[in-house]
Amino acid sequence: MLRAEGPLGFTPLQIAPEVPRPAPVKACPQAGSDRVEVVLTNGRRLVIGAEIDLGMLARLVQVLERT
Q1: Angle CA 36–37–40, to nearest 5
Q2: How far is residue 28's CA from residue 34's CA, in Å, rounded to a whole number?
Q3: Which residues contact 42 (CB under 8 A, 6 or more apart)?
Q4: pLDDT at residue number 51
Q5: How far is CA 48 from the centre of its chain?
């Protein structure tokens, strides 16, 4: 059983606005394509190779969502 050392109390917290969800990824309309289309929340679209590094894609989306 866990026992607390010292006085018990509440931890203050602050409720922040919801963080936007990542942009949905969908396949390009061309059959057999190795590309994907990403539609950002600001309306911009990216058509990229399916083999893109996910870290690079995340950084790119962050920059494009800010501008």
Answers
A1: 140
A2: 8
A3: 64, 65
A4: 84
A5: 17
Task: Determine the straight-line distance between the first and last CA of the chain, rounded to whole angstroms.
Answer: 52
In tens, the pLDDT along 2-34 reads 565 767 677 777 777 777 777 666 655 555 568
Other beta carbons within 10 angstroms of residue 38's beta carbon come to 19
The 3-class SS string of the chain reads CCCCCCCCCCCCCCCCCCCCCCCCEEECCCCCCCEEEEECCCCCEEEEECCCCHHHHHHHHHHHHHC
